[in-house]
Amino acid sequence: MYKSLEDIIVAEKEKNLPFWKIVMQDDCIELDISEEESFRRMKRMYEVMKESDNAYEDNLMSRSGLVGTDGKKVHDARLAGKLVCGDFIGRVIERAIKMGESNACMKRIVAAPTAGSCGVIPAVFITVQEEKGYTDDQMTEAMFVAAGIGGVIAHRAFLAGAAGGCQAEIGSASSMAAGAIAYLNGADASGIAHAAAIAMKNLLGLACDPVAGLVEVPCVKRNVVGAVNALTSCDMVLAGMISKIPPDEVFDAMRAVGRAMPENVRETGTGGLAATPTGVEMRERITSL
What we know:
Layout: H1 5-15, H2 19-31, H3 35-54, H4 70-79, H5 86-104, H6 120-132, H7 136-156, H8 161-164, H9 170-184, H10 189-202, H11 219-238, H12 247-260, H13 277-287
Helix pairs in contact: 2-3, 2-7, 3-7, 4-5, 5-6, 5-11, 6-9, 6-11, 7-9, 9-10, 9-11, 10-11, 10-12
C-alpha cells in the first residue's frame, strides 16, 4: 500500500501509468491476484453500490425511529422543482440520504470507507455517471482512485470516528470521492491529490457525536455534506486551484486534529449533539424500548 499521495504522483511519472492502474497493481501484489481479478472485484463493489441505491425502501424506518423516509422527501421535492440546488445536486443529496438510511435500517451497503460514511461515494459516483455517461469500467477505475486515496489516509491518519472524529469518516469519504471525480474529468495524479486535500481541509475537526451511539443522527445528513463537498472540491481543482498545503500534510494534520479531539466527540455518544437535552432524551427513550 502506498504511504503517500506524493509516492503515487512520482510513480505515475516514472511508470507512465494512470493513478488507478498504479493502485490496482499494488492491490494485485498485496492480494496475490491477477489484474483481471482485481478489476472484477472492484467492479462488483461498484455494482453493489448501485444495487443498494435501487433497493432503498421509502417507507422503512430504523429500529430507533430516528431515521427513515427522508430520502423520499428529497426525491419528491426534487421532482416538484423545490430544491434551490437544482436537479443534479438534488440527486446527490437524495442518494446520500437514502444510502445512510439504508445502513441504519440494516440494508446492504458498501462501507466506503466506513458504514457511517457509506452514502458519500455512491451518491457522487452514481449521479455523476448518470449525468456524464461514464461506463461502468470508467467508474471502476474511479473506484481504484478512491481506494488509493483511502489507503493513504488510513496509513497517515485514520478512518474510524472512534479514532479521529467524523473527519476520519465523512472527511475521508469526501476526499476519496473528490479525487476520483477529478480523475474522471481528466486530472492527473497531482490534480487528484489536490482535490482530495481540499475536500479534507474543508472538514477538518468534524466531531463524531452520534445520538444514542447510533449511526443515525446526525450521521445520515453528514453524508450529504461530504458528497456535495467532494463535488465542489473537485470543481475548484478543475478550475485550476490547488491546495496551498501539500496533500499528504493535510492528512497528517487530520491525524493531529483527531488526536487532539476530546474523547466525548470521538464516537462515544457522550458529547456534542449527543449531549444536548434532546439528544439525551432520545437516548433515554431508545434505551427504554
